[in-house]
Amino acid sequence: MDRQQHARLDELLRDPYPLYARARRAEGLTYVPELRAWLVARDADVREVLRRPDVFSSANAVRGDVVPSQAALAVLGEGIAVRRPVVITADGPAHQRLREPIVRGLTPARVAAVLPYVAERAEALADAFAAPGSGRTVDVMEAYALRLPGQVIGHVLGFDPADVPLMVRGGHSTEQLLFRPLPEEGQLAAAHDVIALQRLLDGYVRDRHAAPRPDLCSEIVTSLVPDDGDPEDGEGDPEDGGAEPELTLGQRGELIAHLQNFLLAGHLTTTALIGTTLLHLLRHPAQWKLLCEEPERIPAAIEEAARYDTALQGFRRVTTRAVTLAGTELPPGAEVLVGFGAAGRDEGRYERPDVFDIMRVPVARHVAFGLGAHACPGAQLAREQLRLTLELFTRRFPGLRLARDGPPVRMRPTLIHRAPEALYVEW
């Protein structure tokens, strides 16, 4: 993809909603060359795809827009190769097996147990950016949204808090390397961050395999040790006095990949959802005022924000056989982009879908967190972080508004974690 093509793609990704509207009005599906996929934009069609994982495989769920440079690929080559899919790209029984420990680790009871920690960290972050002498204008993305979800996911996994900044940086660098046309220097820096994250996760994988703890990292490691039949890949001796055999290099690589996938889904998406929700509430001061006066409306505001401008705009799918969708005949191997963000603005399902309205009644069930076999298992944890954030901000900063002298808000050019690049606010 050349520079001009990337410029067109950037423009489309910063505001995909006009494209979504055209695609919903068109007969059948719309092929989008910039995305190299058929766009599934109507709510009913999105639901059909998500309910038929046997026909619409997740094998290509996330595919990068950028091929890293040879120098960056050389750095990435220093990492541990992965041969099997992770939960987001698996289908059928393999997907169920990979998903089960995550579901067990994010049950309602376990989410409830972590909420006091979420509330404590949220208050501490607010204390830091609102401290006397720190000024009354802040980029709330940098000071809050980019920090809280990473700290929460690190806590759930059982990571040392000192490792969380590297974990967060590595996640963002992974996304940039795959989806942003970075200069050579930026690619190399991102690649080194990815390798640093892999090495960090490798340490946790080996530690939890040797001595499991009551945390989600242990749950994932002990449940998902793959059957690695390559004896030359091993490092330990299973006959060594009955001790637990060491993980092979291949096993370690796959467990690292599972943890990396969980981290990206767990903190980047929630960061984006916090940013977009605050953005749209502050763009509608009357609704922000109403939320401050009536905080019981916060759950409805969360659902409206997710419907109106969801963080995860869409995932890819590939057809496993010939199929007709919305009147369009798709051959085997056809790529489709399942537009969660497009479905949220479907005129056939919602009244005034392009209007942000936290008083929308009733709030129709949206697909912002997916549907069916691949529905987001962390949806409740994300909602709870946003709920606690809004309760905190409406209580402590009722005068919050977009900074009058701040730069114009620009959305990040991605469909994976749509959010403001920066969000300057004052109070």
From TrEMBL:
Region spans: Disordered: 222-246
Record has Transport as a keyword: no
InterPro entries in the record: Cyt_P450 (IPR001128), Cyt_P450_B (IPR002397), Cyt_P450_CS (IPR017972), Cyt_P450_sf (IPR036396)
Pfam families noted in UniProt: p450
Keywords, comma-separated and alphabetical: Heme, Iron, Metal-binding, Monooxygenase, Oxidoreductase
Name of the protein: Putative cytochrome
Source species of the chain: Streptomyces aurantiacus JA 4570
Residue intervals passing through the bilayer: none
Entries under SUPFAM superfamilies matching the protein: Cytochrome P450
Signal peptide from the UniProt entry: none
